[in-house]
Structures are given as C-alpha cells and as structure tokens.
Amino acid sequence: MRVITVNKPASLDNLAVSETADPAPGNGEILVQWRASSLNYHDYLVANGSLPVVDGRIPLSDGAGDIIAVGDGVTKWQVGDKVMSAFFPNWIEGHANKAKTLALLGDTVDGCAVEKSCLSQDSVTAIPKDYSYAEAATLPCAALTAWRALIVEGGLQAGDTVLVEGSGGMSVFALQIAKAAGAYVYATTSTDDKFEQLKSLGADVVINYKTDPKWGVTINKLSGGGVDHVLDIGGGTTLANSVDAARFGGHISLIGILGGFTAELMLPKLFTKQMRMTGLSVGSVEMQNAMVRSINISGIRPVIDRSFSLEELGAAFRYQETGKHFGKIVIEY
After folding, report:
1. Which positions ≥6 away from 115 have C-beta within 8 Å?
2. Which of 189, 166, 199, 168 shows the shortest CA–CA distance to 327?
3. Can you give the pTM of this predicted structure?
4. Residue 272 sits in a domain of what CATH number?
5. pLDDT above 80 for 257
6. 27 and 62 both lie in a single domain
7. Residue 127's domain spans which residues?
8. Which of 29, 94, 109, 191 gives 20 to 30 Å between its CA and that of 118?
C-alpha cells in the first residue's frame, strides 16, 4: 500500500512516498481503507517541521473510508461500514485529560496519509448520511472544533450572536453550524470574493479586517454591545479585536495560532467584561457522534475548495500556505 511519511529534516519538499505491507487488525481493531483526507493547519505544522515528530511519522489527522476487515472481539462495526477518524483516538468520552489526549493522529501516532490503517473499534465514528468520502474527511478536526466551541463549550442558543474569523475550514463550519442553530453571524475577511462567499453561506454581516483594523470595536457597535460567542483563530493578530467584539459576559474560544504563538492583552478589559475564555483542541469521539447526528438533521454540507491526490500532498500544503482557499482542501486516494 502507498504511504507518505515526514522524514527529517522535515519540510514540504521532503514528504516521502513509499510502499509498505498491509497491516492486519488485532483484537478489538478494525482495518480501514482510507478514501480521502483533508488538510488542517496542525497538519501543515507537522509536515513543515514546525512541530517535532518522530522520523517517518505518517501525517494527516483527518480520514474517511471503508472498513475492509475486523479483528477478534469487534462488535461495533462490520466490513463495509463507512467511518471517519477521530483526532484524539483515545478520547472517547467525558472531559479531556492528559492520558486521553496523548495520542494525536498524524502527530504523536501515525495518521491517515496511507491507504490502510488499523484502529481501535472505539476510535472512529460513522460518517453522515449521503456524505461522500471527501466531504466526511473534512469533519474530524475543523468541524468538530467549531461544534465544540459553539455547542459544547459555548452552549449556543437560537438568537445568539456569533463572530467567526476568516474563511478557513473551521470558520466556515462555525458559520454553518451557527446558522443552522438560528444564530446571527458576523464574519471577517480580507477579500471581496470571500466577502460574497461568506454572505452566500448566510453570514449576516461581513467586515473587511484589512480596511477596518479596529474591526472588533466595529462589531461591538453593530451588535449593540458585543457578540455572545467569538471563535478566535489568529492569536497574536486577532485576540485584542476578539476581546473588543465580545459582549459583557461573552465567551471566546481560543482555537488558532495563525497570527503567532503569543498575544498581548489589556487584562482590565477581561476583568471589566467578566468574559470567559476557553482554550480548546478539537473534541472527543462522543462529541463527534453528536455532531454527526446533528448534521444528519440539519443537512449542512462542507465547502470544499480544491482536491489533490495523495502523491500531491506537498503541492496541497503549498496551496494551503497561500491562504487563497475558502473552506477545506481535500486529499483523495
């Protein structure tokens, strides 16, 4: 079977394609043939060497495919079932802890940039009804992060106000989930074409953050005192504006580091507004199952910008690097 590995010195030009023997499922394991994956910023940091991983690590945390064999003791799945990966394969339910999140697909353990993988029967979920493999492969990281931020941690209610930043995969999913729940959504972008795409997906107000560097203050005024939920993706470049945009007692989900690993804050603003900040990383298998049930009811569909083959993984990351994509970049095997 084909496999791609991150070899030292890690770089996008050093992603090695090779052949390896098919694995066989052990007790309680399933053998999945991956049909598609998708790119996340975390995958990019693994592939380009920004995050330290062992030599020969198989990257990519997202995967969707078929079960082609089951080991002894498997009771949850049958051959032919369509499944998708879990970002944290050992975080099945309950609150996160260190033990549950040590295994991280495509980082601390091998990921989905391979044709076949053996996984615990507990470490996958069904894909939504009528979804293609490519559509399902966009969900495990980006969509589940948005779901957890808004629904699990934020307790989103119909009529709430939400701010999503940019037009990457997580932000687009957050917009779709928020609108499906009956929320009023503010969005930011820097280009006219993405402005129109965000509006077409239901964004009620779109702000150009390049022409309005104080966009947080603007959104606070437009919303009549701030929004209920903010999904911050930029860290150092966005967090100050996110705080300005949030209402008194609002909730900010700290999700991304696109603008750097550190950020400066005026602490009195946090105290005065008595707001809540939650640092979060994706979610559990239990949360993913709940998200799939919701998708089956709401009918939302992922926005796929472009598809690449497995052998074109390096080129796909180069495209991701440009920031020109809207929604998700998919790898199809």
Report:
1. 1, 2, 3, 33, 34, 310, 333
2. 168
3. 0.95
4. 3.40.50.720
5. no
6. yes
7. 2-138+302-332
8. 94
